[in-house]
Amino acid sequence: MAHTIFIDGEAGTTGLQIRERLAARRDLQLVSIDPAKRKDPQARAELLNGVDAVVLCLPDDAAREAVELITSNSVRVVDPSTAHRVAPGWAFGFPELAKGQREAISASKRVSNPGCYSTGFIALVRPLIDSGFIPTDWPVTCNAVSGYTGGGKGLIAEMEGPAPEGVADAYRTYGLALTHKHVPEMQLRTGLDHPPLFAPAVGRYAQGMIVEVPLQLWALPSTPEPERLREALADYYAGERFVEVASAAECAELAQARAGAGGYVAGLDPEGLNGTNRMRLFVFGNPARGQARLVALLDNLGKGASGACVQNLNLMLGLEEGAGL
User: Fold this and answer.
1) How many domains does the chain have?
2) Contacting residues for 41 by C-beta, under 8 A, at least 6 apart
3) Rounded to two decimals, what is the model's pTM?
4) In whole angstroms, what is the distance from residue 200 CA to residue 211 CA?
5) Is residue 321 part of a domain?
């Protein structure tokens, strides 16, 4: 018998992509609410409590309200919003995070999806903290650029509509108050003592992202070579299906691929993994200078949102982890 799934907020960007990934599956049955009853608390509560699993593609406050409506002890919830990413009692939905994380997700009835930026940052930093290369009190910084779909309906409409006169920006930095909503989970899930300094940006393209963590290796206690960091990441994710670490040869080849005198590195297209649930990690470095750049490439709507949600849903329902992905 198929598991019943209700996507609360299925009309949003993430909800639509999750629905698309699940629609053709025979082991799942998607259930929708009557549009006329969408704002009826009783009708929503009945549906939220009457299915096997709920996916909350909602703003944070609405996600919290939906959880309060769920009184059934059997309903499993996956929340892609920010509302529960550092909340007690919620499993963090990054199966590759650490040993035992898959089991924690499988056993939990409440799972919170990581943020898209957080997925790349945590994937790069957590293994190096666990391996002792980065101390927990290290002042870590993170630079990232995402497609505009991560900004929600308002930004999507602005980017896809006619640009105001005099506005033709291809790239926008934001989060200048240093209070980005992903930072708490970035700190908690890596084990850092202090919040990382996070510098996000959005490009005028729909989806896909690059997350980067620069490191002054000469200042780290063990002064590691860049290749030691790459090997640590490769060992950490060995055998993983959706997280890959580029080989030393590929990283070297990319570092040498230049277009023009400015030294632009070709081959790291932020849209390169769009439509997938994959994430690729790279380590570029200059041993002589004692510096490295850790880079994560992923789809902000894939491994950074809908793909990760489906992966978590599969684990929670005891299904094959990669089904539909």
Assistant:
1) 2
2) 69
3) 0.93
4) 9
5) no
Residues 178 and 259 in one domain: yes
Both ends of the chain: CA-CA distance in Å? 21
Q: Please, are residues 51 and 4 in contact by the beta-carbon 8 Å criterion? A: yes
256 versus 61: which is more confidently predicted? 61
What digits encode the pLDDT tens for the residues 250-280? 999 898 875 444 556 557 899 999 999 999 9
Query: Whole-number mean pLDDT of the chain?
Result: 92
- Cα separation, 174 vs 119, in Å, equals 19
Same domain? 37 vs 100: yes
Active-site residue flag, 116:
yes
List the catalytic residue out of 57, 116, 142, 309: 116
**Residues 109, 212 within the same domain:** no
Cβ distance 268 to 297 under 8 Å?
A: yes
The reply to whether 323 falls in a domain is no
pLDDT-above-90 percentage for the chain: 78
Interior/surface letters 84-122, b for 16+ CB within 10 angstroms, e for the rest: bbeeeebbbbbbbbbeebbebbbebbbbbbbbbbbbbbb
Q: What SS3 state is found at 2?
A: coil
In this structure, are 258 and 145 located in the same domain? yes
CATH classification of the domain holding 106: 3.40.50.720
Domain limits for position 214: 116-300
99 close to 118: Cβ distance less than 8 angstroms:
no
Q: Distance between CA 233 and CA 123 in Å, rounded? A: 9
C-alpha 196/C-alpha 142 separation (Å) is 7
Rounded to the nearest 10 degrees, the angle between the axes of helix 60-69 and helix 41-49 is 70
Listed as own residue / partner, the contacts of 65-73 with beta carbons closer than 8 Å and 24 or more positions apart are 66/8, 67/110, 69/41, 69/44, 69/45, 70/45, 71/45, 73/109
Max CA separation in the chain (angstroms): 65
